[in-house]
């Protein structure tokens, strides 16, 4: 698997630009892609992306002019198209060899956008890459017939939520409420608000798909 990791910033809500800037800069991304109005967020943080993609209808004129002066690559699409701008940003990131994709500014705002953005995690996973959503307060992962060792600190909240159906054989370790080969029923919130007991915890799903949400 490629070690390259992409930062994809969308046009959702950002609560604290200082915190988000520190997170992005600490990751040393090989590629930073702004999806349409996500460029406005990067501009406010003083971060120059490698590429801006979309129909460009949500970018402020000042932002557009600044990034043109920085010779940022623009990939413009018509407003009427089958794919969303976010999908196009994901496909561009994968095309450029990034098999780990972190998505920022995906939460908050319109609930239809938020739900759709969470669904993008599976869209990326199906294409052989490893996604997560990161905000100032949360990290969201997706697991399908797989396992995850999650880093954090004692007291961090971790929720494991069945996604796309029941999740069978779920095992949780180093959490306050452990599970061993437990079958989680879709739509039953049995895995909400667990608590990390150490600096790492382990989630294993034998058959099915779950979202893993860590609250920092």
TrEMBL record:
The protein, known as: Thiamine diphosphokinase
Class in the EC hierarchy, top level: transferase
One GO term of the biological process aspect: thiamine diphosphate biosynthetic process
EC number(s) reported in the record: 2.7.6.2
One Pfam family it belongs to: TPK_catalytic
GO MF terms, alphabetically ordered: ATP binding; kinase activity; thiamine binding; thiamine diphosphokinase activity
Annotated ranges, domain Thiamin pyrophosphokinase thiamin-binding: 152-211
Alphabetized UniProt keyword annotations: ATP-binding, Kinase, Nucleotide-binding, Transferase
């Amino acid at each position: 698997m490629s070690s390259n990791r992409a930062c994809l910033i969308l046009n959702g809500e950002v609560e604290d630009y200082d915190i988000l800037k520190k997170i992005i800069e600490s990751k040393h991304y090989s590629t930073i892609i702004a999806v349409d109005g996500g460029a406005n967020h990067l501009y406010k943080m003083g971060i120059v992306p490698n590429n801006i993609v979309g129909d460009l209808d949500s970018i402020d004129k000042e932002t557009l002019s600044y990034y043109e002066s920085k010779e940022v690559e623009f990939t413009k699409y018509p407003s009427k198209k089958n794919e969303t701008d976010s999908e196009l940003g994901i496909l561009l990131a994968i095309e450029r060899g990034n098999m780990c994709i972190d998505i920022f500014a995906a939460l908050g705002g319109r609930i239809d956008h938020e739900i759709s953005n969470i669904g993008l995690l599976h869209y990326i996973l199906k294409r052989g890459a490893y996604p997560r959503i990161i905000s100032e307060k949360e990290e969201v992962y997706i697991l399908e017939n797989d396992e995850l060792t999650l880093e954090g600190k004692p007291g961090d909240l971790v929720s494991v939520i069945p996604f796309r159906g029941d999740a069978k054989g779920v095992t949780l370790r180093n959490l306050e409420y452990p599970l061993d080969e437990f079958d989680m029923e879709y739509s039953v919130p049995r895995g909400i608000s667990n608590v990390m007991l150490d600096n790492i915890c382990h989630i294993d799903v034998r058959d099915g798909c779950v979202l893993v949400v860590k609250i920092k």
